[in-house]
Amino acid sequence: MKYVLIFFATLIGHGYMPVEAKGLTPREIYEQAAPAVVMVMGHSDSGKGGSGGTGSIIQADGVVLTNAHVVIDEKTGKPYPRLSVFLKPARVSGDTKADLARMVRATLVAYSSPLDLALLKLESVTIPLPVIDLSDSDRTKIGDRVLAIGHPEQGGLWTLTTGVVSAEVDNFNGVKGKHVFQTEASLNRGNSGGPLVDSEGHMIGVNTAIARVASDGMPITSISFSLKSSVARQWLREQGTAFSQQPALPPSGPTRAAVEVPADQPSMQQSLPAPRPVPSQAPAPKMDSQKNQRGPAQPLTTLPAPRAYNLDELVSDRSKAEADLDGMISEMRGRFKER
């Protein structure tokens, strides 16, 4: 040990400083994490309403973590009757029909409205899916670089944005145990439920809320909030989830199209048995009140805003398609019974 200390002292004396390990580049992080990021849509029975957001595959057998407000109907306070999850294509092209071709049905397993967390289970998963490491957020501090992956409205699907942690807030919005990071990484509607990732590619937060307009109508920029992964991990333990991030699949068989083609919160959680969740009586979760406030329109340019996709139109179209598909299947089953 003495000679090791002398060696390092000699290096420092000659102007050589120890080199710290550098994190991954944004490109490397994206290539590592993005395959485990999904788009989540909740659909009403009528096909006229729904919600869209982002989620993260945290177990290879198809366990997905997202926001509760993505899968709970704000009007009824109950889970959407149908949930669709879309897996990332090999290349995102900007053609939503092609980019969202890999659809899998999902079941709501549990959710917490106060924490704005929900746990989904994908159906018919027969091969291991890519996962993102739900890491320990306690090591992340103000000033650390972070990245977000999601589907911001008016932007592209599986979009990467970057920034730093700008603040930490305990008991966010008065909810005990709801600890969040404030970040300047760009988030917009559609990013909800997606991962906040550190410079090593580990998930250290669940993107939850944004602030865009102050109480006096002045615009707010670069104020977004992500629930810390330590809170999510504790909640998962309370659900009794066997959180291992290891493949847990049925015996090997033919690969089906579902995958390859088109801390003290126990009193605040609602667990739902699979496969059909029991609706909770808890009120629908609300995002930070500033998220949906809009001040007077003050356009800064005469050019139309970019519009890669409109979240409401996309969800509405998919909801109608889901309702039509269910209706067709029911009709076919009725015909078979008549025979």
Quick structural overview:
With 339 residues, this protein is α+β, with helices and mostly antiparallel strands.
Second CATH tier, the architecture of the domain at 36-132 and 233-249 and 257-271:
Beta Barrel
Strand content: 25-35%
Distance between the termini: 85 Å
- Calculate Rg over CA atoms: 22 Å
Q: Tell me the helix content.
A: 10-25%
Order of helices and strands: HHEEEHEHEEEEEEEEHHEH
In spatial order, strands of the major sheet run 1-2-3-6-5-4
Unreliable segments of 5+ consecutive residues: 16-21, 244-303
- The total of beta strands comes to 13
Determine the structural class based on helices, strands and strand pairing. alpha+beta
Arithmetic mean of pLDDT? 78
Quickly count the helices.
Answer: 7
Name a few traits of the molecule.
339 residues, alpha+beta, Thrombin, subunit H, 6-stranded antiparallel barrel, 13 strands, protease, Peptidase_S1C, hydrolase, Chloro_Bact_Ser_Proteases
What do you see in this structure?
- The protein has a 6-stranded antiparallel β-barrel with strand order 1-2-3-6-5-4.
- The chain is 21% helix and 27% strand.
- Among the domains are: 36-132 and 233-249 and 257-271, Thrombin, subunit H (Beta Barrel), CATH 2.40.10; 137-231, Trypsin-like serine proteases (Thrombin, subunit H), CATH 2.40.10.10.
- Strand 5 (103-112) and strand 6 (117-122) form a beta hairpin.
- With 339 residues, it is an alpha+beta fold.
